[in-house]
Specification:
8 helices, 816 residues, globular, mainly beta, 7-stranded mixed sheet, 43 strands, 9% helix
């Protein structure tokens, strides 16, 4: 099995892990009394190797069976970088007392001998010479990158570092691993918590739970170059569920015609059977994975493929791709006609998205391609498909991908996108398109453009959005000339307050980024009186040297706004403690207020710092702040490793206005919409709800002191208007989310995987009686963007009379 952690990561190999009675050094959490990693081999399939796969072998030194349900084997490179991730292989079953348990990993292109039938299969391409393998209680990826940090993680049951691995137990890693040698524990399974002492180089000797030492049903043997098809067809491999009934099994002489070839990234080619069966659930196409080797076939070749069937999971929570790995290919003839493509359009794609498994895996559910869109796409995985005249719903990315919809009437936005309306109303027509020809990438397109004519290719799946069309023929771009919006200028009596996520801006950034963002403020937002900024970094960005100030960054930004025709803004912020606010390591991200002192005053009250909480103070003249600027409850666990809200007191036309700038925790870690767990778990939501409750409590304290206080809460909340996060923020009707005042087809400020959605918000208290609100679309729908967020603005009449009708105002397209 192959596991991918980055767009370019390719995994191949097999890992053997043994469980030991005292698997961890004294510094680690108390080790298991029985389970250890007994052998690790990363040279499988390498040049000179005998075995075709890497492996990890586990052993049980105890007197009772050791249950591995919910456990995993995880792998980390020997010298991990900042971007290195632990790669996870899930385990099932148990290891008997005195027994072994074999975890096969990805196969290479060398070797002649297969492993015994594995007890679990992963997709990790381990290094032959240096790496770290951990036996972990749970399947959540580890995050530790040092021996000390891994020792402190109580989920680690046993750990083996080999070669020059940084992460290891004891005095040093186990030595001697190579393309032809594993590192293995002594027969006694003794574990002194010192990898160098406990494991030594050995000839690879994988043993599975059945006690088998070779072949076992996985070895394809040497099929040679068959000239006649074998008994297995592609539809037999694909089966009627998401996982092949032949997963891990050898197949010989599978016939098909080559329909497409991929020469970069995850190399290989697709074949399709020209004699399909009558079952719409069983796919007729499959990917043949050639690893690092360039495919030695061309489109139109009729081939016979022998190899091992494997389910490749791009990540721990995605669906899998069925593949044939370690292939041996016979070309029977060339220049053959390709099977006709399946047409994907509004009629053929179901309106329901995916079946439910109550939060569990949908892998084993029988496919229902006429009922669910993801089941249809799964039944067509590896098959030729065709789309025509499709509207772009997600602009071309830096990775040369573009999102389109084959169901144009699904939740259309005013500007040509597709609205993400609720958790239960998914847009089934969204498809990502990539080109298989590096010389002819997908065209640069904005939302609302149309890919005219026919686009065809092979349907594939990855972790970056799910099902996608790997195009062999692209339609032509029809440009619909989407315009960047310009909002109207505020009137003299209106206080204009905006929010803008400027995407990790720091003083080391290119001047072009400053200039483009500045034009957005000065021109497109028509120079608001107050701008609440998210993602301002410290002055040297990701350089991690203790710098926390943002003066140089803000000087460059405000200078650029003046150059773009805007006012000379002043600024206020509270510098974070170094490394305490999350975001890019070393960046010290924070919220910042810009304000135009010619139009609005800032009330400075000293004492606001990174750790001092701001409080509402009741006075005879109404409510004020204890410190300004200040932070809401910075010691609360809700803000651990996350940016804290910035609160400021402003004066406009003699009236106080309280502004709360926010940047809630990201959605990182949530299960994908297209993943194998349905319905997906939104694990990141818990923290945002806690953060929303803190802000809600603070707003209530302001209103308790003065029920007519004018409060504007705004920023990147990283959540939807229909989310529990916004529900917690508005609890008690103390705040009104202005995005819901717009027409439905305009309720968005961000585009992700072809869905137009809202992460940014402006909310106002009942004391804001008359307002005019606008999302200003200048980034999210465009391939060329200064930020991935659109800014938004509210114009408030602070002197609007209270007629006892509560919250008035309206959303508006005040742009031209």
């Amino acid at each position: 099995m192959r596991i991918s952690t980055t767009r370019s990561a390719l995994l191949a190999g097999a890992v053997a892990v043994t469980l030991s009675a005292t698997a961890l050094p004294a510094a680690f959490a108390a080790p298991s009394s029985s389970a250890v990693i007994s052998e690790v081999y990363g040279g499988g399939g390498n040049s000179g190797a005998t075995l075709t796969r890497d492996f990890v072998e586990l052993a049980n030194a105890g007197s009772a069976a050791y249950d591995l349900s919910g456990f995993s084997v995880q792998y980390l490179p020997g010298a991990p970088s900042a971007g290195s991730l632990w790669q996870v292989s899930a385990l099932t079953g148990s290891v008997a007392p005195g027994g072994r348990y074999l975890v096969a990993q990805a196969a290479g292109t060398g070797g002649t001998v297969a492993l015994p039938a594995p007890d679990a299969t992963g997709t990790v391409a381990m290094s032959a010479t240096a790496g770290t393998v951990a036996l972990v209680s749970g399947t959540t990826p580890l995050t530790c990158k040092t021996a000390a940090d891994c020792a402190a993680d109580t989920r680690v049951v046993d750990l083996v570092g080999y070669g020059t691995a940084v992460v290891r137990e004891g005095s040093g890693p186990a030595k001697g691993a190579s393309a032809t040698a594993s590192v293995a524990r002594a027969a006694s399974l003794a574990d002194t918590d010192d990898n160098a002492a406990d494991l030594a180089a050995a000839s690879p000797s994988p043993v599975n739970a059945a006690g088998e030492t070779s072949g076992g049903g996985e070895d394809p043997g040497d099929p040679g170059n068959p000239t006649e098809p074998g008994t297995v067809r592609i539809h037999d491999i694909q089966g009627t569920t998401r996982v092949s009934p032949l997963d891990g099994k050898a197949v010989t002489g599978v016939p098909g015609v080559v329909t497409a070839v991929r020469t970069s990234g995850s190399r290989g080619f697709w074949i399709q059977d020209t004699a399909p069966d009558a079952d719409p659930r069983t796919g007729e196409g499959v990917f043949v994975y050639t690893g690092s080797a360039a495919p030695a076939v061309k489109v139109g070749d009729s081939v016979l493929v022998s190899g091992t069937v494997d389910e490749y999971y791009p990540s721990a929570t995605t669906q899998s791709v069925t593949e044939i790995t370690a292939p041996k290919v016979t070309v029977v003839s060339s220049g053959n006609a390709l099977p006709a493509p399946v047409v994907l359009d509004a009629k053929s794609v179901p309106s329901k998205y995916v079946p439910s498994a109550g939060g569990g895996s949908i892998d084993a559910l029988p496919l229902e391609p006429s009922t669910y869109a993801l089941d249809l796409y799964e039944s067509l995985e590896g098959t030729r498909v065709q789309i025509a005249d499709t509207r772009v719903t997600g602009a071309t990315t830096a990775y040369h991908e573009v999102w389109v919809t084959v169901a144009p009437k699904q939740n259309p936005t005013r500007r040509g996108g597709t609205l993400y309306a609720s958790y239960t109303d998914q847009n089934t027509g969204r498809i990502k398109i990539l080109s298989l020809d590096p010389a002819a990438p997908v065209p640069t397109a904005n939302v609302g453009d149309v890919l005219s004519g026919t686009t065809s290719g092979v349907l594939d799946y990855d972790s970056y959005g799910g099902y996608n069309l790997q195009a062999t023929a692209l339609g032509t771009l029809t440009d619909h000339h989407l315009k960047r919006e310009v909002t109207r200028k505020q009137k003299g009596k209106e206080l204009a307050v905006a929010t803008y996520n400027v995407e990790n801006l720091d003083a080391l950034d290119d001047q072009t980024k400053f200039d483009t963002l500045a034009e957005g403020v000065a021109v497109n937002l028509s120079s608001p009186d107050i701008v609440s900024l998210e993602e301002i970094q410290d002055d040297n960005g990701a350089v991690n040297d203790g710098t926390v100030g943002s003066e140089a960054t803000l000087k460059r930004f405000t200078d650029a706004i003046v150059a773009a025709g805007g006012p000379r803004y002043s600024w206020r912020y509270v510098a974070p403690q170094d490394g305490k606010d999350g975001g890019e390591p070393g960046g010290n991200i924070r919220n910042v207020f810009l304000f135009n002192p010619e139009r609005v005053g800032f009330v400075d009250r000293p004492g606001g710092d990174a750790t001092t909480p701001v409080a509402a103070v009741k006075t005879k003249k109404g409510v004020t702040l204890s410190v300004s600027p200040g932070r809401i409850a910075p010691a609360s666990a809700a803000w651990d490793d996350s940016r804290k809200p910035l609160v400021g007191e402003f004066r406009f036309h003699g009236k106080s206005v309280f502004v709360v700038g926010n940047h809630f925790a990201s959605k990182g870690g949530d299960q994908p919409l297209h993943g194998r767990y349905q319905e997906p778990v939104r694990s990141s939501e818990t923290k945002r709800v806690q953060q929303a409750k803190e802000v809600n409590t603070f707003v209530k304290s302001l209103l308790a002191a003065d029920k007519s206080a004018r409060v504007v809460v705004l920023g990147d909340l990283n959540d939807f208007a229909f989310s529990p996060t916004v529900g917690a923020l508005t609890d008690g009707k103390v705040l009104k989310p202005l995005i819901t005042t717009l027409p439905k087809n305009e309720q968005y400020s961000y585009v992700y995987e072809g869905n137009s959605q809202t992460l940014d918000h402006i909310l106002t208290s009942p004391g804001v009686r008359r307002f005019d609100y606008d999302v200003v679309h200048i980034n999210a729908e465009f391939a060329d963007q200064a930020s991935d967020h659109d800014p938004q603005i509210v114009r408030v009449d602070v002197n609007a009379p209270d007629h006892g009708h509560g919250h008035g105002g309206h959303g508006h397209h005040g742009h031209h």
